[in-house]
Design goal:
Elements: E1 2-8, E2 11-18, E3 21-25, E4 27-31, H1 43-48, E5 54-57, H2 58-63, H3 67-72, H4 76-80, E6 86-89, H5 92-98, E7 102-105, E8 108-112, E9 119-122, H6 124-134, E10 138-140, H7 152-176, E11 188-193, H8 199-210, E12 216-219, H9 228-238, E13 248-250, H10 256-263, E14 269-272, H11 274-280, E15 283-286, E16 289-292, H12 312-316, H13 319-327, H14 331-357, H15 361-372
Helix pairs in contact: 6-7, 7-8, 11-14, 13-14
Length: 377
Amino acid sequence: MYKLICRDGNAKRGEFHTVHGTIQTPVFMNVGTVAAIKGAVSTTDLQQLKTQVELSNTYHLHVRTGDKVIKKLGGLHKFMVWDKPILTDSGGFQVFSLAGLRKIKEEGVYFNSHIDGSKIFMGPEESMQIQSNLASTIAMAFDECPPHPATREYMQNSVDRTTRWLERCKKEMKRLNSLEDTINRNQMLFGINQGGTFEDIRIEHAKRITDLDLDGYALGGLAVGESHEEMYRIIEETVPYLPLEKPTYLMGVGTPANILEAVDRGVDFFDCVYPSRNGRHGHAYTNHGKMNLMNARYELDDRPIEEGCQCPACKHYSRAYIRHLLKAKEMLGLRLLVMHNLYFYNNMMEEIRNAIEEKRYKEYKKAKLEGFAEGEA
């Protein structure tokens, strides 16, 4: 259940109550695709990085290790030793992005595994069954993530099918949550709004899925090649047609600046691989822009990545040492950067929540964006 605490302009400050604890929103979900954050970051690490929600992927866990195995082991929470909320992505995006050979039909999608080429079928019912086996807190509906750009006709047909699939997801989840052997019988379902950059298709779809009275709503199919300006326009046009009293989730977005702009337009939930991926490439997020720790200028720099940061990397290690680890190809260097970046994102979300509560979000956003524009610290 979502409780809207207050608003500052369109920015929302809320609480989302789940069977695995309360999520303070706006929130950034830390991406652990295969039930682990890339960069050797454990769930015990996540606890000290201010992580509220961990996100895992249905498709990846289905094709490797297997959701039935995870169910036998007690579900994802027990498997990865994590007692807070978990959101599972439906697998739709991966089916459409990873599977080169695929056939989309009304019943679902036929495709080949990217691991061993074996034939797989996934439709709304299969996606719900896999996510129920994983026993995540929040399951995402199975949808088509249409290509960008797509013709208007293609987009409309795709969105119509996604709506029909969503109705099937809702029905199947209700059935699964009633079964005795289901691990999490309080699993929630979020629907996904699609429509590319056609705002009228987006708005009409938002209205249709709102009628289904789901636990939350996501904006999908953005950050797939359109400009930031187009993305902000679509968010601005679509969010008012999604229910205010439910969480709104912008999937796969994004940079700290993207998050600040989307919060200003009424978005509550975010996820992105950037903090961990950039950390693994030697890049650190700071309040003064992104740093490349591989640069020679940090060779003798004994300061932390960011002065005042309370993450495990900044509390103990210098830029010079982390640079040395990167140069020596020691995994610890990547691990420290990933931990710093996740802490930076999670801490920024805490600042955002405080700014909204104190009715100073516009000023906070402006100062933060100006800091990011400064360049390397």
